[in-house]
């Protein structure tokens, strides 16, 4: 199969979602894609062991995408060879009353992965410039000082949020968090097919919510907000990758390969050396055990 | 291979660790054990999806065992087919200053899995009647009202802790947490071999700590404390299973099979039904999407 050029998905200057690919298959069949993914995730699993032992960096994977874009199954498949010990997934839903009593980044901040761990945000702090921008009435519930009516949620308000998000990411990156941001880019037609499948397959019915159809009506507005958010927050230390998501197997493969290639650049991540003093006495310790 | 009789590992009345098996292989080779484990963990993975969707129970797996008993690799292997989204592993180490400002169960309480999730405690609240009992000097750092000197840590003190632990587990079980407690029962000789391997294999060296040898000297005292703890806290709603741990592959298999057999008893855990009102309108929703 074709080589995966991860830079072709990376947002460097800016992107137009309208023309960005939503389908990829690398001229390979499902079986080939699956086999390749298995190989990559084994390597990722090995890297994770070293990351954990090294204990100086953490990895944060941010996952965004429209309903049915495959976020949950991607998490299941990509992290299969990770030690569960070192992965922490947070699925962010509607903020709770407690969370709303804090600023919009607070609940994300306290969910950040500890050093040595991989954190996955399933939906992320970006929802604060996505769902809340599409539905300004939601933001009004957040009691932000100076925000008293929907009209206050003007361009300047959203620019401020982008700036705050950029500062947040800059700060955690400078303190040892390796950040990946993936947008699972789904076509509107593929979403229609996936929703119909939920409705048609009895055992998938329970996943359906009428709200999915309401949000679908706002598709274009969501795409606008995604595009704006991605273009204003893709940085070298916290890049966005726009992943064609109509083919789930290819999407998982690109995400896994992107993480692997990027993480391999951190040559200083390695298993710790034994303390010199302990090293000097290794033979003694061996003798103690051997003569028991 | 022989059928796995999970009840033979369950502590019903009481157990004597001295005579309990530390080795098991089911008359099967490694390859067979591995294959069987793969089958069980796929079934566990499927169960987990349903547990998550159902969202009314949580599962808490408590894992205890001496150094090198294989806790970490067991977690890696048993949960491989779980969706990382639904598993939360907490490795409890020496309590932090903040944790010591709370009662000894606090840090475990706040780490409990949410409904729908599987929580793994890698070392658990039982360390409060194990390492702290073997080393009473550690407990003294906890500033417990009325405890002023090592002599205060008498039998009555430990009985009180067992009672508190039992009450804690009774409470969370009654509120929907399915509890498993596994003791990885390692022989002293196998630990010696595993420590020697750490010392002899250069790439495993960094895992070695001289403290391991110090704790090993207290082996018999640890076994006593384990036995007492297990016998005083094995309850129907929170049973202990004593797992022969000298053969890692068999140990993982027994743990996985135990969870699977026990979880299958919860016949009420199933995917949720669609709300009646939504069900009544399913055809409408389909039409909306189909005529788009």
Automatic annotation (TrEMBL), chains A, B:
<keyword id="KW-0808">Transferase</keyword>
<keyword id="KW-0418">Kinase</keyword>
<dbReference type="InterPro" id="IPR022300">
    <property type="entry name" value="PPK2-rel_1"/>
</dbReference>
<dbReference type="GO" id="GO:0008976">
    <property type="term" value="F:polyphosphate kinase activity"/>
</dbReference>
<dbReference type="InterPro" id="IPR027417">
    <property type="entry name" value="P-loop_NTPase"/>
</dbReference>
<protein>
    <submittedName>
        <fullName>Polyphosphate:nucleotide phosphotransferase, PPK2 family</fullName>
    </submittedName>
</protein>
<comment type="similarity">
    <text>Belongs to the polyphosphate kinase 2 (PPK2) family. Class I subfamily.</text>
</comment>
<dbReference type="Pfam" id="PF03976">
    <property type="entry name" value="PPK2"/>
</dbReference>
<feature type="domain" description="Polyphosphate kinase-2-related">
    <location>
        <begin position="29"/>
        <end position="267"/>
    </location>
</feature>
<dbReference type="InterPro" id="IPR022488">
    <property type="entry name" value="PPK2-related"/>
</dbReference>
<dbReference type="GO" id="GO:0006797">
    <property type="term" value="P:polyphosphate metabolic process"/>
</dbReference>
<dbReference type="InterPro" id="IPR016898">
    <property type="entry name" value="Polyphosphate_phosphotransfera"/>
</dbReference>
